[in-house]
Amino acid sequence: MAQYTEMINTNRPGVSQGAFSVGRNVLQFETGFSLGKEKHELLQTETNAFAWDYSIRYGFFKEELEVSLIGLFQSNSITDSRGAVPFEFSESNFRSNTLGAKYLVYDPYKKKVTDGPNLYSWKKNNKMQWSDLIPAVSVYAGANFDFADNPFTPEQESSISPKLVLSTQNNFIGGFVLVTNIIADRVTTDFPTYGYIVTLTHATNDYFSVFLENQGFKSDFYADNILRGGAAALINDDLHVDLSVSINFKDTPSLFYGRVGLAYRFDMHGKDEFIEEKGKAGREAKRAEKQKNRDLKKKKKQLKKDKKRKDSFDIDEDDGGGGLH
């Protein structure tokens, strides 16, 4: 069906991108604030960090398409203990600032909705099937805008570099959603980064969900493996809040972050609509939809003509009393 859902559907509280867009004519804001501590054993530094992450998403033109601005700004207060007397300094800049677009390539759930449930077996409709293992697939392409003298990026000069993401999403029975991202980032620079994100979310009811996420990435500039967990609560159809924590498994540096955030959408979506099928079946469905609209317009015109003729007849039949029959 349409990407649009009655309740807000976000990428939070994890950092992976789901395969589906927000829906056409939906403008969505997702943001969060993090406080954390990092400790580097080799460099003998301890860092208190504050971070602000943000995402602006908009669905337009087609249900499968979404454009977005995704970024992270971080400010660090660092204590260096390598000398006889520890000294403190600070640094701040954007870790990332990426403008891009995501497009749904394949949606296995469209056919399931079109076909409808199995009317002969309640069991088949309420247990996992082999077809559930086939995920929805989307591709994302974006441009990183990095600034000069940035301590969080490898390049010393300002640069623009590409980011590519392949996203898959499985919606399992029982409120479980599995999202995977395969990422190639800053691939045209001297320090490209390659990584993955796997996120498992479980909706315990219509208003509350929990998640567990693993992210790994590697480059000559920085590599890490991060584990996240947390929960989200739905306040109303267009607003949710979330809370999460992040840890890693090394000491160069070790890190621990707490994060709180929210997501809100401006819902300008019109009527619900099915994503068009591709190929011959799609063309036939589109022609049938156009013919249906033409027939509806003809019917409305005919009703107007009939009403006009009836009003005219009633006036002609006025018996002189000044009224219409």
Task: List strands and helices in order, with pairings.
Elements: E1 26-40, E2 45-59, E3 65-80, E4 87-106, H1 109-115, H2 122-125, E5 136-146, E6 159-172, E7 176-185, E8 193-205, E9 208-218, E10 224-236, E11 239-248, E12 254-267, H3 279-316
Antiparallel strand pairs: 1-2, 1-12, 2-3, 3-4, 4-5, 5-6, 6-7, 7-8, 8-9, 9-10, 10-11, 11-12
Characterise this structure.
The protein is of the alpha+beta class. The protein folds into 2 domains: 250 residues, monomeric porin ompg (Porin), CATH 2.40.160; 48 residues. The protein is 15% helix and 50% strand. The chain is built from 3 helices and 12 strands. The chain has a 12-stranded antiparallel β-barrel with strand order 1-2-3-4-5-6-7-8-9-10-11-12. It starts with 25 loop residues before the first strand and ends in a 9-residue tail after the last helix. The C terminus is likely disordered.
* CATH architecture label name of the largest domain: Beta Barrel
- Based on CA inertia axes, which overall geometry fits? elongated
Strands across the major sheet, in which order? 1-2-3-4-5-6-7-8-9-10-11-12
Taking the sheet with the most strands, its summary is:
12 strands, antiparallel, barrel
List keywords for this structure.
alpha+beta; 50% strand; 325 residues; 2 domains; twelve-stranded antiparallel barrel; Porin
Write a short abstract of this structure.
Helix content is about 15%, strand content about 50%. With about 325 residues, the protein is α+β, with helices and mostly antiparallel strands.
